[in-house]
Amino acid sequence: GRTVGILGGGQLGRMFAIAARRMGYRVHALDPSQDGPAGQVADVEVVAPYEDVDAARRFAEAVDVVTFEFENVPSETLAAVAEIRPVHPSPAVLDTCRHRLREKRFLAKGGFPVAGFAEIRTEDELRAALVRLGTPAILKTAEFGYDGKGQVRIDAPESAGRAFEALGGKLGVLEAFVPFACELSVVVARSHAGDIVPFEVAENRHARHILDVSLAPAGVPAAARARATEVASDIAKAIDLVGVLGVEMFYLPNGDIVVNELAPRPHNSGHYTFDACVTSQFEQQLRAVCGLPLGEPTLLRPAAMANLLGDLWEHGEPQWDRAAAFPDVKIHLYGKTEARPGRKMGHLVAMAETAEAASARVLAARSALVSGRPGADPCP
Ligand code: ATP
Ligand code: MG
Ligand code: MG
């Protein structure tokens, strides 16, 4: 069969659909909002809320295999789809990865390095956990968090009450603060046959808890890159992945690696692969879920990616011609019509002699988008 279904209509689905259509596949995207980033480029956009199990069944019947780009599709919907067609990665993988406690327990049980953590249901549990894990610590909701939403840093035990209130009655996870030197990620693919193919290790820089820039290869020693790659590959095997998995990690000043979280789909830090690798993470997802052999992940040249957030639209449409004047910079836009602060609208990619040089190029192109505007950086 050559028709793939994707649950979720965001930019990850859009880039998946582009990769799949390029290889001659038909793509159906299920999306709660009309004309979403994925729906715009899919062959068929099915507009229905994720809770609409009947619509999801009809969606599944029209395709040969199903994957997802959105982690919070309700379990009932996913189960109904999985009864009709193969879903990759499996609902079990998704179930582990979308719940921080289940994810951390899975990792700890498998012997993977994670920060100290505790399940938080009551304020007393939080106080006890703060004694055990110390401060600073980070309190996160167990589910539905992204871009740092649903997280509070606790710097002193006295702020336990306020932090607990911020959970708003949701199940929480307290994590020991990891004093990292930098953040890394490895996107890894695993095929039906069990072949494991990792991409280059990326180094990730965040701004306001949102990924800002990714550089590949990461600027850490080769031994650390090898270790990060090994950890990600071992996780892919342990979780019995079929598909693509993004593994976020902290790199410590002593060279150790600690796993932060998992995303069972292409990852924002792997967007550079679309321009800079023989096979992109989206093509790799297609290959994995369709039972094809995986492609070569080779990085063609050091690369960097900078996200374009809605904030850039604050004073009107960015000046695209100014970014286009950087002939080595690739512009990706997701087709979102409403630009809100913090919303991921697109990204830029460049390749250069080094990843840092590529990063300088995407940052310069991004500054040029808003140069000369009120509030713009006066020295782009
Ligand atoms: P994403 O958009 O990546 O899914 P998220 O909301 O799930 O984000 P995390 O990845 O858990 O959140 O955390 C966001 C960022 O906050 C991390 O990339 C890191 O910079 C910081 N952070 C999170 N947990 C810790 C920790 N235990 N120690 C130190 N910094 C942390
Ligand atoms: Mg996350
Ligand atoms: Mg994260």
UniProtKB/TrEMBL annotation:
The keyword Secreted does not apply. GO terms for cellular component: cytosol. One of its GO terms (molecular function) is 5-(carboxyamino)imidazole ribonucleotide synthase activity. It catalyses: 5-amino-1-(5-phospho-beta-D-ribosyl)imidazole + hydrogencarbonate + ATP = 5-carboxyamino-1-(5-phospho-D-ribosyl)imidazole + ADP + phosphate + 2 H(+). GO terms for biological process: 'de novo' IMP biosynthetic process. The keyword rRNA processing does not apply. Transmembrane segments: none annotated. ATP binds at residues 100, 140, 145-151, 175-178, 183, 206, 260-261. Pathway: Purine metabolism; IMP biosynthesis via de novo pathway; 5-amino-1-(5-phospho-D-ribosyl)imidazole-4-carboxylate from 5-amino-1-(5-phospho-D-ribosyl)imidazole (N5-CAIR route): step 1/2. Its EC number is 6.3.4.18. Residues 104-290 form the ATP-grasp domain. PROSITE patterns: ATP_GRASP (PS50975). Pfam families: ATP-grasp (PF02222), PurK_C (PF17769), RS_preATP-grasp-like (PF22660). Keywords: ATP-binding, Ligase, Nucleotide-binding, Purine biosynthesis. Catalyzes the ATP-dependent conversion of 5-aminoimidazole ribonucleotide (AIR) and HCO(3)(-) to N5-carboxyaminoimidazole ribonucleotide (N5-CAIR). Catalyzes the ATP-dependent conversion of 5-aminoimidazole ribonucleotide (AIR) and HCO(3)- to N5-carboxyaminoimidazole ribonucleotide (N5-CAIR). Homodimer. Belongs to the PurK/PurT family. This is N5-carboxyaminoimidazole ribonucleotide synthase. The lineage of its organism: Bacteria, Pseudomonadati, Myxococcota, Polyangia, Polyangiales. The gene is purK.
